[in-house]
């Protein structure tokens, strides 16, 4: 009786796969003394998630909630990756690691 949650589960799986792209950016921020930037990134993503839920849940139900969570995680990862690169000069994203291994 869980067929209705199948699309939402697929959306959340895709969102978590995107979550991997940022790599250990949050940990790097915390270990280098930039916890406040990690906090600001998470706060912005949470507020964005709340706003998206208010819009998408009435329209799409549980799938709308899954979309809101996935997009909010993507926003959070973009922010922490940006702050990590800007403040430490370290590229934690997966694409940089793959490019580096090809050389």
Could you please describe the fold and organization of this structure?
The protein is mainly α. Helices cover 81% and strands 0% of the residues. Helix 1 runs parallel beside helix 4 and helix 2 packs antiparallel against helix 3. The chain is flat. The model has no long low-confidence stretch (mean pLDDT 90).
Write a concise synopsis of the structure shown.
The chain has 103 residues and is mostly helical.
What structural class do the secondary elements suggest? mainly alpha
Count the beta strands. 0
Q: Please trace the helix and strand order, writing H or E for each element.
A: HHHHH
Q: Mean pLDDT across all residues, rounded?
A: 90
Strand content: under 5%
Helicity range of the residues?
Answer: over 70%
Counting H and I runs of at least 4 residues, what is the number of helices? 5
Coarse morphology: flat
- Global Rg: 16 Å
Distance between the termini: 50 Å
Biggest sheet, open or closed, and with what strands and sense?
A: none
**Oligomeric state:** single chain
Unreliable stretches (pLDDT < 50, length at least 5) are: none
